[in-house]
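Hello,

I think I submitted the S-adenosylmethionine job twice by accident. Can you confirm which output corresponds to this input? Input:
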Amino acid sequence: MAARRDDPARAVAARAKLTRHLIAEGAIRDERVAAAFQRVPRHLFVPRVPLRVAYADDVVLMKRDAEGMVISSVSQPSIIAVMLEQAAIRPGDHVLEIGSGGYNAALLRELTGPAGRVTTADIDPDVVGRAREGLTCAGYDDVRVLQADGEFGVPGDAPYDRIVVTVTAWDIPPAWVDQLRPGGRIVVPLRLGGQTRSIAFEEVEGHLESSSAVMCGFVNMQGAGAHPDDDVPELAVWEGAELSVQAHRVGAELPPGFHLVRRHHTFTVRRLAGAGS
Ligand SMILES: C[S@@+](CC[C@H](N)C(=O)[O-])C[C@H]1O[C@@H](n2cnc3c(N)ncnc32)[C@H](O)[C@@H]1O
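Support: Only one job matched these inputs. Its output is below.
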């Protein structure tokens, strides 16, 4: 297994296959984003898993809390791609990523180019250590990785042209707006009405305007911006409904005769075979 992981030709081929898949799915449209996916070795950010898992279009779960809730992951390539497209990173941009893991920070570093800068912050010291290790190993040691509660941004490195948030938020804290350059963009998975959508906001003359929204699923924000609970019980659940929730939470709320079928980063409600209508 280790020999396969360490075989550069296999990793290059796996990256090319994943990139082709993301283009075919419509997650990647910009050729600069495609080039970044071709270059960044995802397997170095998900140690101990086989190449086939490292280059599948799937999330890799990295850490759970004491109740078994996932609190850290390396995100699914297709949602990463969609968010990078939403962010429209330009060469020379200074980007803040909130919620680290290393992989997305490396992609951001590719997109910002030699004149750009990337700062990434995670609240969890284990994640900070893992992200740093992966970035160094993959040759992106000029990405600044620090432990911080992203609710307050990273004022020391501000201002930012782009703020890319990779953890579910319930609001846009003032710090993000304060630390954004005029005309800058924030891309954030926002929890609204029981569903999570990655929304791109652009700063226009002192206010934020949303320009796109895509359904997604992310782990929940910890720290000062944490929200007490998921709002699954308020959801009207019907067959075919698309949900972006922690599956084990909604499972208990479903009426008898229904179950969840995973569709990439969301879930679809389906009637169990044989259950009446
Ligand atoms: C989905 S993971 C990030 C994935 C990562 N960007 C990647 O490259 O795949 C979400 C991360 O957000 C972190 N997080 C949660 N609350 C946070 C907060 N308030 N500030 C910063 N990071 C936070 C978690 O520790 C977790 O590692």
